[in-house]
Amino acid sequence: MTEKPVLTLEETRQLLAEYLPDEAGLDVAEVTSGGLVFTAAPERLWVRPGGTVSGPAIFTVADLSAFVAVSAYAGKVPSAVLTSSSFSFLEAVEPGPLRVRVAAARVGRRSAVLTAHVEDEQGLLVAMGTLHFSYPGKRLS
Q: Is the pTM here over 0.85, yes or no?
């Protein structure tokens, strides 16, 4: 069974602004039956000495994108908490915009498992991960 988002692009953008108002530079570009695409502007990404985007910056973009995607798939769940993840960095990333493609592997009543694929501006896959969120407390509709 393929999980599909229940929120529209505009509803997901509104949630991003509500949940993460200080995350300028992160945007929702697409919400389709195949998943969500987020973009991260280069000015929000930390660059290490040597001129590559830092691993923590890449993971943070993937984590925040997946956090918002949980609500796009499960309805409003501001209590979603990352409980575990597995993340691999595949390539060094030059400064520039990133795209994060998030898809749901499983969405349940109390938790969701999502995959995140991070691409550079040329579309090269630079990192990928699986993120497991639980959402304790009451879900909002």
A: yes
